[in-house]
Amino acid sequence: MKISLSKAEIQQGAFVGVQRHLYAIKKKLPEEDGYRNAWQNRIEGALAEMAFAGMMNLYWAGKADQLTKGDVGGWEIRMTSHAEGSLLLHRRDLDDAPYVLMTGGGGAYQVRGWIMGRDGKQEKYWGDRANQNRPAYWVPQSALNPIESHIDYITAHQGVTT
Description:
alpha+beta, 4-stranded mixed β-sheet, 3-stranded antiparallel β-sheet, 4 helices, 21% strand
């Protein structure tokens, strides 16, 4: 499923990403191991959250000064610019939350699927595939559920015909 943000949405989402980056600098938060471009990652992450919220008919708070769980409602959004990329989970991630993988960038995203945290944390997915001192669970897209299978998607689109 493809989602494109408007220019105004890109501007708003990018602003939130910049605010998140400034918040991290102000609080002297350590960078995640292995992330090479925190600035770009925070902006693209915010844009992906906004795109997902719009698709799910959910409010996007665009939190810039909080590090709380639940990027969009109860959903955790993971984003990569690699079309064939994996959904990354860490041991500290919530077991009882749904994680969705978005790919793309610059305001154009594709939903690749979702998985519950506990289901993605399988040892067969564990490793440091990017060789960046960033071990994680690299859940392949083939292991993800279609977004259309989640009750939140079904509820958000009741009565909508294509």
